Amino acid sequence: MNYVVTVALTILIVVAAVAMFELYRLLRKARETVDDLGKQTIEMVNSANSTIDQLQPVIAKADGMVEDLQPAIKQVGPLLEKTNTAIDVATVDLASVNDILVDVTSVTDTASNVTSTVSKAANSAVSGVAGVVGKFTGAKSNRQKKLASKSHAFGRAHDEEPVEEAELDEAPSTQAASRDYFTYSSDAREA
After folding, report:
1. Is 77 inside any structural domain?
2. pTM of the model as a whole
3. Burial classification of residue 123, based on how many CB atoms lie within 10 Å of its CB (0-12 exposed, 13-18 middle, 19 or more buried)
4. What is the CA 41 to chain-centroid distance, rounded?
5. Angle at the Cα of 12 from the Cα atoms of 10 and 17, rounded to 5 degrees
6. Does residue 147 register a pLDDT over 90?
7. Roughly how many angstroms between the first and final C-alpha of the chain, as a whole number?
8. What gap in Å lies between CA 77 and CA 87, rounded to an integer?
């Protein structure tokens, strides 16, 4: 039995030695890992400190810019109020211009109506003179009809048929009347 106890004790001592050796290796690896982590942590801290040191001037400049902008920011409100006032004044001016244009349009329409009335009166006078001249000369036919049609054509703003020179020689009073009066057409009033 003694022999068995000696063998068992020897096996136990060998197993304990192997376990101690493995424990030693494990502790050594753990120490190396902790040392590596410590070195990496130190490097990261140093890198972070370096980055913070580099950011300090940038942060100081940003603070200075914000401080410089404070007076400008305070002036934005009054500037916006002045802009709103200028826009309101411009709107009022545009409304005044619109009123003036409406007044000009009404004056133009009135002038057009007066011109049309004067033109009609002139046409009636030309027709009357042509009739009187026709009575004295006894020629009431084609010549009087041409004068009457020319005087009516003069009242329209756009002639459909142009007047030829031979017709103008026959009716000098119509030629003089066309130089003295100008008639607005309905198209000109709408524009």
Report:
1. no
2. 0.30
3. buried
4. 58
5. 95
6. no
7. 135
8. 15
